[in-house]
Design goal:
about 0% strand, about 65% helix, mainly alpha, single chain, two-stranded antiparallel sheet, about 425 residues, 20 helices
Length: about 425
C-alpha cells in the first residue's frame, strides 16, 4: 500500500487518464509482473532461506492463483508467511475477475469479446468503470470468503487455518498451511465446504452481483454454467466408479475423494486430500485432461475456459453440417446468439497457441533434465494455473523445491502466460508492438 499510494500521489494529475490499446496490454502484463516481484520480497527476507528464483516462483504462483509451492515444512513455517501466501492468491483472485470483465474483452483476447459490454466499449472508459465494477465484485468476494471461513471454523478447523483456506478456496488458489494440504485435517465436513466453495469460485462473479440486485435467473440461463456443472458431474461420477471398483475404497469414501480432488484439479484450485497419482491410469489421464478445462469466464479459475469449448463445438458442428450439405447455411450459436466470425477465429487461434505454448514449455522443461511425467504435468499445471502436477516429484505428495532454478523461472513465465490468456503477454514480443 505504501508503494502503491506513493506512486499514485507522484503521478496524479487533474486530467482524466486515457489508455490506448498498447498501453492497456502493457498495463495488464506489467501489473502482474510488478505485484509478483514486490510479493516475492517477504519470501526472500524470511527465515525460510529461499533463493531469488524460489521467492519469485512462490509469489507468482500465489498472485496467479496457481498454488504450486517450493516451501518445504509448511506445518512449521512462520504464520506471517502463511498469511502472506493466502493474501497473495486472494488478491490475485479478485484481480483476475476484474481483468476478465474489464480488460480482456476490450483487448479481444481469445474470444473474450463475447463478454464485451457497452460500459467497456472503448479503452478510455475502462479505468473509471472498472473501478466501479471492482467495488461491487470486491464486496461479494469478501462476503463469500467470510462465509466460507465461518463454515470451516464451525466444521472444526482452527481460526487461522479456516481463514487462509477460505481465501484459497474462493480464489481457487490452493495454498494450504499444511504440507499434506486439506488431507492433513481429516475433516469430511470441511472438505465438502471447500468443494462447494471451489464451485462457487468457478462461476461468473457478475451473476452474484446481479443476484444481490434481484436477478436470480441469469445464472441458470447461461449455457456456460450448465456445461461446467455437467462436466463436473460426469468427471466426478467416472472417477468415483473407477476408484470404488478398482481402488479398494468404500462407495462413500470414493465419492468424497473423487469429488474433492477432481473438482480441485478442474477448477485449478490444487488442494488435495489424497495422492491421486496412485489411483491408476484412467483417473490420472482424466485429471491431466481436466487441468486444461478450467471454469467459467469471469470467475477466479484458470485453463482454457468452458465458453471456448462451447464456441469450438458450435463452430465444428456447423462446419460438419456444411460438409454434408454444401449449399446449406449453418450459423454457430453461443447462448442462443450467433457467434461473430472474429470470435470464432480468436478462439481457434487461442486453442492453437495454447497447445503450442504447452508443448514448447514441456519440451524446454525436458531439456533442463526433468523426466517425462514431470515435464508434461509441470507444463500443464503452470500454463493452466492448477498447482500440483503428477508423478513423484511435483505430484500431490511432492513439491517444486527440487527443480533446477532455470525450470522455476520457466514455470513462473508459464504461470503468467496462462493467467493472462497468452496473447496479452506474447503480443509484447512482437516488434510491431514497439513501433510508433
Amino acid at each position: 500500500m505504501f508503494v502503491g499510494v506513493s506512486l499514485m500521489l507522484t503521478t496524479r494529475t487533474g486530467m482524466h487518464t486515457h489508455l490506448n490499446l498498447r498501453q492497456a496490454f502493457l498495463l495488464t502484463t506489467m501489473s502482474w509482473v510488478a505485484v509478483a516481484a514486490v510479493g516475492a520480497l517477504p519470501f526472500a527476507f524470511s527465515k525460510l532461506d529461499l533463493s531469488v528464483a524460489d521467492a519469485f516462483f512462490e509469489s507468482m504462483s500465489g498472485i496467479t492463483t496457481t498454488g504450486s509451492t517450493v516451501i518445504v515444512g509448511l506445518d512449521s513455517a512462520p504464520p506471517g508467511i502463511l498469511l502472506w501466501r493466502a493474501l497473495l492468491q486472494w488478491l490475485g483472485g479478485v484481480g483476475i475477475i476484474v481483468m476478465a470483465l474489464a480488460m480482456l474483452p476490450m483487448l479481444s483476447v481469445g474470444g473474450m469479446q463475447l463478454f464485451q459490454t457497452e460500459a467497456f466499449d472503448a479503452p478510455d472508459k475502462v479505468l473509471p468503470r472498472a473501478a466501479q465494477l471492482a467495488g461491487g465484485i470486491f464486496v461479494i468476494y469478501l462476503l463469500l470468503t467470510g462465509i466460507c471461513a465461518f463454515g470451516l471454523w464451525l466444521a472444526g478447523l482452527p481460526g487461522f487455518d479456516a481463514i487462509t483456506h477460505a481465501m484459497g478456496t474462493i480464489a481457487t488458489g490452493g495454498y494450504s498451511t499444511k504440507d499434506a494440504s486439506v488431507g492433513h485435517f481429516r475433516n469430511e465436513t470441511a472438505e465438502w465446504i471447500i468443494v462447494a466453495g471451489m464451485i462457487i469460485g468457478s462461476l461468473p462473479f457478475v451473476y452474484y452481483l446481479r443476484a444481490v440486485r434481484g436477478d436470480l435467473i441469469s445464472m441458470r440461463r447461461d449455457s456456460q454454467v450448465r456445461w461446467f456443472l455437467a462436466i463436473v458431474l460426469l468427471a466426478v461420477s467416472s472417477v468415483t466408479i473407477w476408484i470404488w471398483l478398482k481402488g479398494g475404497f468404500s462407495f462413500l469414501d470414493a465419492i468424497r475423494y473423487a469429488s474433492f480432488n477432481v473438482i480441485s484439479v478442474l477448477t485449478g484450485t490444487g488442494y488435495t486430500t489424497v495422492d491421486f497419482g496412485l489411483w491408476g491410469g484412467f483417473p490420472v489421464m482424466l485429471l491431466l485432461c481436466l487441468m486444461f478445462v478450467g471454469g467459467c469466464a469471469g470467475s477466479t479459475t484458470c485453463g482454457i475456459k468452458i465458453f471456448r469449448f462451447q464456441v469450438l463445438y458450435a463452430t465444428t458442428s456447423a462446419q460438419v453440417r456444411r460438409l454434408l450439405l454444401p449449399h446449406g447455411v449453418f450459423i454457430p450459436y453461443y447462448n442462443k446468439k450467433a457467434i461473430p466470425e472474429n470470435v470464432s477465429d480468436a478462439v481457434m487461434g487461442f486453442f492453437f497457441l495454447y497447445i503450442v505454448c504447452f508443448g514448447a514449455l514441456a519440451a524446454a522443461l525436458a531439456a533442463l533434465g526433468l523426466d517425462f511425467i514431470t515435464a508434461i504435468s509441470g507444463a500443464a499445471t503452470a500454463i493452466s494455473n492448477v498447482g500440483p502436477g503428477l508423478g513423484d516429484v511435483i505430484g500431490p505428495s511432492g513439491n517444486f523445491s527440487s527443480l533446477p532454478e532455470s525450470a522455476k523461472w520457466l514455470l513462473s513465465f508459464g504461470m503468467l502466460l496462462g493467467r493472462l490468456e497468452l496473447f496479452t503477454v506474447l503480443v509484447m514480443f512482437s516488434p510491431t508492438f514497439w513501433t510508433r
